[in-house]
Amino acid sequence: MPATLKNDRLLRALLQQPVDRTPVWIMRQAGRYLPEYRATRARAGSFMTLCTTPELACEVTLQPLQRFDMDAAILFSDILTIPDAMGLGLSVVEQQGPVFERTVRSVEDLASLGVPDPEDELGYVMDAVRLIRRELDGRVPLIGFSGSPWTLATYMVEGGSSKNHSMVKAMLYDNPALMHSLLALLADAVISYLNAQIHAGAQAVMIFDTWGGVLTGPAYEAFSLAYLHRIVEGLNREHDGRRVPVTLFTKGGGHWAGKVAATGCDAIGLDWTVEIGDVRGQTGDKVALQGNMDPAVLYAAPEVIEQEVTRILASYGEGSGHVFNLGHGIHPQIDPDHVAVMVDAVHTQSARYHATVNE
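Below the sequence we write its predicted structure tokens.
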């Protein structure tokens, strides 16, 4: 039997159930801003070795929990594991980022791809999930994740990172049938991948639509949101006797929150370009909201960080359904002590917004 979850604050907030204080975790919380992560990364020799070695992935997943009073752990992995498992040959180049040996730009390229077996080609991820759950021993829940079909497609078509996404957008407009075929395959792969993470022990899952915000409104609905909806419908939402919350995060997509909420997801991640209270007013009690402090605030003095925490908590207001987070991943140059200030401020200041639980 799995260990009893000692702190289920995150899961309760994602399901809009009462909590004693607002839970907090941060995107990329296991990453380069931590000296202990950099030491483990150096020992691994490469980023891909770090991702594909379950013991190392477990080690870095747990590192932020040893420093900070976080309310969740998030699996240390990469959003590009699926296209790598499809045989596109992923490498991570210093100062450049992810690079694929092969791209997907034609019907022939697509025909060579299939849905990876999550316990075979992606078995190292499932092994990491199982190991992390064992090492957590019920301390906090574990979040699993995947990239969205549209975001994965951008890297697969471009061959890596891109500033203007010219090739993938050209395919979208010039050959929409091919793009939809690629996205449908990726949606099936994400469903299989996340369901396997849930079966292995992930207690919540999140889909990162990092590049959804580069699309027009109609293109977003057709080429990103429709496939997010398909994934939400295909996920196992119950495991180990508990609901498994699903969070969707489209960077630059806060103004589409009402449409995202209609997918049936449990929560929406927000970046810092929208006011969380305004989005709550638009979505009501349909979904929980995660976010959304500008990561750059963590460069500021402790009192400024505390003031911004105060402002965001007040913007969301009373009641459950808020998971405090950054609006995107933490910057590598951030002082870990400033992260501690933010986490402590959230826990200290948020109790007043959950007065009925604390009375």
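The chain has 16 helices and eleven strands.
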